[in-house]
């Protein structure tokens, strides 16, 4: 008997219909022994997520407004599912305890976490599994940083006592004993931490899509699905905007060499996308590119200074200026006498003139050029480094589509090629690259 950890997202546990699908999926494989659940998501267009309602309770509390009716909506929704599915569970003591804590004006983290907490209790009763609270097991330091090793030891020790269990995602505990949460989407991280702790054979992440696609379906019509992807490829695509799995969820599973399988609750027969370091095991040999992803609205500041390459500390001073303004750089392509600083437009909005003035006074460049409304597009794939002509093919495709390339950046791994194009050419460029490598 193996071990699978299965995490079900908000859309998978939104109501009784979805929970019935979830139960059928779990019962179909006895290896699915540890289940992590999110708070219930939207049931239909215009509906509210439970977590959003709980945040609204907190907002009302902060403004001394009545919140009882909002919390009652939350309670009614859980009780409706309990009745519809015939679950033998009395929610009253749980609701009473939360109401008592609300009177004490608790933290936003505590209030937001109660959606996962209540849902895990509900799902555990529905499945006949043990309920294991992540409070006290998933641990954060005083600054909210995950204590990975302490968490692993605590989860491992507790879950050894339970053959089958349901755990709430999204939250843990700080050193003061108070609830702390991950960022939104943090239930993915909880599932990965549990998979590591129990030494799972697979970590299944069940959601409302059948895995990753090679390109954004809003841009490319019916893009092909990615059957298998490496952790490194996924990291590159996620960084550039391809979002199905919370990117921080990759690392705990990867540390334990646990493959991650993205699956669709509404189409459980689909194999989904497998994320693993052992791509060769799945027969992936001839694939040149794995996927294409990109984002809009970057600003490029190009600095030119004669003999820059012989001036010590030049790049360090650039980074120091960005640090002073708390601005992250995305890329830093350079030449002998030039260096370009690529930043997201949102991070520098309203401060560009100040940053430029700092560059002039502290770097003394011969010239500065600013290019705004730039899009970055990453073409990613392990097969690129052993296939001559890949770059030529990519740039020929962009040239044929009459897309002007404003910037080129390639990592030393030769696993990705990043091009900067004008925002107006973003969709056209992605379609051109996709057609050149996938549809030919």
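-> sequence recovered:
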């Amino acid at each position: 008997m193996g071990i699978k950890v299965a995490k079900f997202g908000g859309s998978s546990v939104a109501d009784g219909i979805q929970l019935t699908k979830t139960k059928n999926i779990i019962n179909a494989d006895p290896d699915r022994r540890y289940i992590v659940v999110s708070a219930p998501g939207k049931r239909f267009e215009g509906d509210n997520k439970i977590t959003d309602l709980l945040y609204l309770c907190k907002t009302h509390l902060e403004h001394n407004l009545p919140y009882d009716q909002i919390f009652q909506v939350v309670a009614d929704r859980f009780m409706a599912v309990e009745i519809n599915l015939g679950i033998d569970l009395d929610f009253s003591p749980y609701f009473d305890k939360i109401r008592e804590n609300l009177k004490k004006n608790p933290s936003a983290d505590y209030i937001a976490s109660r959606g996962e907490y209540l849902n895990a209790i509900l799902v555990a009763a529905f499945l006949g599994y043990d309920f294991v609270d992540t409070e006290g097991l998933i641990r954060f330091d005083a600054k909210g940083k995950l204590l990975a090793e302490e968490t692993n030891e605590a989860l491992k020790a507790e879950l050894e006592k339970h053959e089958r269990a349901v755990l709430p995602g999204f939250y843990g505990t700080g050193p003061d004993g108070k609830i702390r949460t991950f960022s939104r989407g943090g239930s993915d991280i909880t599932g990965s931490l549990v998979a590591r702790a129990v030494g799972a054979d697979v970590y299944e992440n069940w959601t409302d899509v059948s895995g990753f696609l090679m390109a954004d379906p809003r841009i490319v019509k019916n893009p092909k699905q990615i059957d298998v992807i490496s952790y490194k490829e996924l990291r590159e695509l996620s960084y550039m905007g391809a979002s199905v799995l919370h990117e921080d969820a990759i690392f705990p599973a990867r540390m334990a060499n646990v493959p991650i399988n993205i699956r669709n609750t509404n189409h459980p027969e689909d194999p989904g996308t497998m994320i693993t370091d052992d791509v060769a095991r799945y027969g992936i040999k001839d694939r040149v590119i794995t996927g294409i992803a990109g984002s809009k609205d970057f600003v490029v500041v190009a600095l030119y200074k004669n003999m820059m390459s012989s001036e010590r500390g030049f790049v360090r001073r650039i980074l120091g200026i960005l640090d002073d303004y708390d601005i992250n750089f995305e890329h830093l392509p350079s030449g002998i006498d030039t260096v370009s600083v690529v930043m997201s437009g949102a991070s520098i909005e309203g401060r560009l003139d100040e940053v430029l003035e700092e560059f002039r006074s502290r770097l003394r460049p011969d010239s500065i050029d600013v290019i705004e409304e730039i899009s970055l597009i990453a073409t990613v794939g392990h097969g690129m480094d052993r296939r001559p002509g890949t770059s030529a093919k990519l740039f020929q495709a962009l040239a044929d589509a009459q897309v002007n390339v404003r910037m080129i950046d390639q990592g030393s791994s030769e696993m990705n090629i990043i091009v900067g194009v004008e925002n107006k050419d973003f969709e056209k460029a992605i379609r051109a690259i996709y057609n050149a490598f996938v549809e030919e």
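The radius of gyration is 25 Å.
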